Amino acid sequence: MKIGNASIDAVLDGEFALDRSIPYPGIDPDRWTGYESLLRDGTQVVNQLGGYLVRTDDHIALVDLGFGPTQVPTWTSGKFLDSLAALGVKPEDVTEVFLTHLHFDHIGWAAVNGDPVFPNATHRCHARDWEYFTGPDFEDNPMMFGPEAGLDQWPQDMLTRDKLGAIEHLLERWDGTAELAHGISVIEYPGHTPGTTAIKVTAQGESAMLIGDIAHHQAELVEPDFHFIVDMSPEESAASQSSLLVQLEQTGMPVAGAHFQDFQWGRVVRGGTGYAWAPIDAASA
Q1: What percent of the chain has pLDDT over 70?
Q2: Is residue 29 classed as helix, strand or coil in its secondary structure?
Q3: Fewest Cβ atoms nearer than 10 Å: which of 122, 173, 249, 281?
C-alpha cells in the first residue's frame, strides 16, 4: 500500500484458524451471509499473524511483532524475519516499533532468548497497556491459545513479562493521541486491552489506518454487535469501534487490521442502514 511517498507492507509470521462461533459466540449464522468470501470454507475465521512494515523518508518502522518463533499446536508461526528479509530489511535497520497493544501475538518477536530482536529501534506502547501487562497481577493464560491447542501451561519462551522486560530499556510509552514520529500518529481506542491503539500513517496529504485488534475480522469492524470473545472491556471496545467506524467512513481512508485474512486492505462505506466493507487491491493502490 502506497500512502503518498510512504509504503506499508505486510510482514507475515503465520496464522491460526478457528470456527467463527468460537471468537464470535451467539451470532446467528445467517448474519455471516455476505462475509463468506472472507472465511475459509465459509465457516472458519483465519487470523493472520505478523505486523506491518512502514517506510517513510525518515523511518523504517514496524507496527506489531507477530507471534514469534515458538511452535504451539493449531498456530503456525516463525516466518516474520524471513518475511522482513524478503522486503529488504534486516532487524538492525528498523528504527521504530509501534505496538498496538501487548497481547502475546503482537510482541512475539520483541525478544528471543532474552535478547531484543530489533536492538536499534525505539519501541513504543501505550502506558496503560504497559502498566497492565507488566503489573503484579498479570498472569499469562494458556486458554488464550484456544481449547484446541490443548495447553495447560504457558510456553516458557513466550512469557509476556520476559518479552517486555527484555525491551524495557528500548521502550517509550505514550498516553492519549499524538504524532510520535513524523507522519506516524497513535490514536487510542481502548477496550480490547486498556491501551489498544490505532496507528495512522500520513504522507503527502494521504492517510491510512492500521487498527491492530480493534477489530479482528472485517465483519467485526462493520457490524457493531459482533463482539470478540477476549475483549477485556466489551462495552468500551464497542464504543471505540463505533467511534472508529464514523472516522473511517467519513474520511474514506484505507484501513487494515492486524489479523485480517491475507492482510486485506479496504474502506468502510455506507451499506443500507449501516456500514459495509469495500476491499482494496493493495498491490495496485
Answers
A1: 99
A2: helix
A3: 281
- The whole-angstrom separation of Cα 24 and Cα 27 is 6
Whether 142 contacts 153, CB under 8 Å? yes
CA 30 to chain centre: 27
* 171 CB-contact burial (10 Å; exposed 0-12 / middle 13-18 / buried 19+): middle
Stretches in the chain below the pLDDT threshold 70:
282-285
- For the CA atoms of 208, 256, 102, 219, what is the dihedral angle to 10 degrees? 130
CA distance 66 to 77: 8
Tracing cell 520476559 back to the chain, one arrives at 162
Question: Which run of H or of E encompasses 242?
Answer: helix 234-251
Count CB atoms within 10 A of the CB of residue 238: 16
| φ/ψ of residue 172, rounded to 5 | -125, 140
| pLDDT, tens only, 86-101 | 999 999 999 999 999 9
Return d(Cα 43, Cα 138) in angstroms, integer: 33
Q: What is the DSSP string of 87-151?
A: TT--GGG--EEE-S---GGGSTTSEETTEESSTTSEEEEEHHHHHHHTSTT----GGGG-GGG--
Instruction: Report CA dihedral (233, 258, 253, 206) to the nearest 10 degrees.
Output: 120
Per-residue pLDDT, 5: 95
Q: From residue 143, how far is each of 14, 140, 146, 147, 153 by CA, in Å?
A: 19, 9, 5, 6, 9
Which residue ranges make up each domain of the chain?
2-280
Q: What number of CA atoms fall less than 13 Å from residue 57's CA on the CB side?
A: 7
